[in-house]
Amino acid sequence: MGRCFNHKFVLNFCNFLFLLCGTLLIVAGCYLYTDNKRILLSRLLAAPSEQLSSLPQPLLYYIALGLAVAGFVAVLASVLGLWASCLHTYCFLSVYFLSVVVLLLAESIICLAITLWPHCLGISLDEAQMVKALQRNYGVPGQEQFTNAMDLAQTRFGCCGMRSSLDYDTSLWRLQSYGQRNWPVPLSCCVLANAPQPLAFLDPKPANETQCQALERSVYERERYTESCLVHLDSWYREQYGIFLAASLVLALVEFSVLLGIILTCTGIASRKARLDSSLSSQTFSQKGRRRPTAKSRQALVDNIYESEVQLRGQGAGTCLGQSSSRHVSSEDFKELYVQPRDLYKQRHNTTFKPIASDYQTPTRSYLV
């Protein structure tokens, strides 16, 4: 019983951790869904991919929804696990085991895909492709999300262009005059006076617009950002991936502990059933062993009482005379059984013993032996 209790305690503790992880996943998905800047920056990661860039929302938007759904499924699975631990049956434990295995496999596939084959998911930070994406999409009508994401990256990281500010010289934004004709770079590349404001990237106000938009480097280098944004985007992507990988590893460890708890519980059920079967079999065996000596002792008692005391007189007389072995049994044959105990009682207590008339009544009917 102690081992069974320990197995159930381990399983319930692992279920509680799994429930806690599922709740944290739901909270993380909701938080990521409300983090508009983080979601907007993820548009730049999927820019080289035509499939992902054609999606109505950035990549992290769907990841946030996926985290919330995964957390909800984990909560349901943990509730099923708590129910299975209470019922303590193989059926519900097997269903719980399979659901945890499916979640673990799906999580492993996603992590391996992001780690080993990011190009399969459309995530690429190749310099040439990112520069082409900038020159093709920035400032173009219908690509407002990419434009806002690039302005956010330049305002947040203090950079200009994917490789340098020269990327805008051959972009559609400047060649087709989508921006100001006398602007070599967007206003988000300038040092902003309203940089502390959270929405400064949507309405950039340069501290010195004239020097920022100058063509000589000696003039604009103090009022314009000159670093590459691709380096900052790569470090930002690695930071987000590190957070996702750490959370995935913690969840995987919890799922492995849940699987171990299920296995221990199943083995505890099997061992408990084996102990019950062995105890039942030993009890039945002991009961049979007790019944047999009791029956034998009773038979021996009957033999000792009746066979030694009752001596049928004239047992061999009939056979010697050639008569039949059967004869009538009379009350004289049982007289010794009544007379001898009374004589003994009389000798010990010196009392007279009056026989009862019914003791020597002859039976009204004789039996044939």
Secondary-structure blueprint of this entry?
Elements lengths: L1 H33 L1 H10 L4 H4 L5 H29 L2 H27 L10 H11 L6 H14 L14 H4 L33 H4 L4 H4 L8 H81 L7 H4 L14 H15 L20
Helix pairs in contact: 1-4, 1-11, 2-7, 4-5, 5-11
Structure overview:
The chain has 369 residues and is mainly α. Helix content is 65%, strand content 0%. The chain has 13 helices and no strands. Helix 1 runs antiparallel to helix 11, helix 2 crosses helix 7 (144-157) and helix 5 (90-116) runs antiparallel to helix 11. The longest helix has 81 residues, at 229-309. The radius of gyration is 49 Å and the shape is elongated.
Give, in order, the helices and strands: HHHHHHHHHHHHH
First and last CA, distance: 62 Å
Radius of gyration from CA coordinates:
49 Å
Shape: elongated
Count the helices. How many?
13
Class inferred from helices and paired strands? mainly alpha
Low-pLDDT ranges: 305-329, 356-369
Helix content: 55-70%
Mean pLDDT: 75
Strand content: under 5%
Question: How many extended strands?
Answer: 0
Task: Report the sheet with the most strands, covering strand number, pairing sense and barrel closure.
Answer: none
